[in-house]
Design brief:
Distance between the termini: 43 Å
Number of strands: 9
Number of domains: 1
């Protein structure tokens, strides 16, 4: 007898999901970052798709869900782990996203020529770079160990996360170019 067809769950920007079962979570990333965590013995996991490192104190951010911000989504992961009676060190953690969607607008020739050196990423003005730095710092501070990353560079990413196995697939897309037009 074959395994049942998985239920596809699309995770929009600013959302969070934690659970188990026969669910495949799908999301599309640009400068945003997705963090996946998976517990191999309990066969459950979680994923977030955040837009910015922190809410800050801007009045315009009022009413926006916690899932939009890296620092706040870590509290969501923490609550889910407490409810499942697990610890961060027990999880396989993967990070994806933080791509530069508009490479022609990069601030330095160094980044335009093919990559952002890790030593400059923390000072970079790119939202994608800031999101990557936030993920690394917050995960480490919370006691998680990142197993793998697919971050930075140019263009978008499609991500699939199977909650029953912990498998994560990432497919790279293209960056936007000046004068590019959407297909009708």
């Amino acid at each position: 007898m074959s395994a049942p067809t998985p239920l596809d769950l699309y995770l929009p920007a600013g959302e969070f999901h934690f659970g188990g079962g026969n669910i495949r979570v799908l999301t599309l990333l640009g400068t945003c970052v997705a963090i996946t965590v998976w517990h191999p013995s309990k066969r459950l996991g979680g994923i977030c798709h955040y837009l910015l490192p922190t809410r800050g104190t801007q009045p315009s951010a009022e009413g926006i869900s916690a899932g939009h911000y890296a620092d706040e989504v870590m509290g969501m992961f923490g609550a889910a782990l407490r409810a499942s009676q697990t610890r961060p060190s027990e999880y396989i953690v993967k990070v994806a996203g933080g791509g530069n969607m508009f490479p022609a607008q990069m601030m330095t020739a160094e980044c335009r020529s093919g990559g952002c050196p890790e030593t400059r990423r923390a000072q970079c003005a790119s939202v994608g770079c800031k999101n990557i730095c936030a993920a690394r710092a917050l995960l480490t501070a919370a006691g998680y160990v990142i197993q793998s990353e697919n971050v930075g560079g140019q263009g978008s990413r499609q991500l699939m996360f199977d909650l029953w196995s912990g498998d994560v697939w990432v497919k790279r897309g293209a960056a936007m170019s000046p004068g590019a037009q959407a297909a009708a």
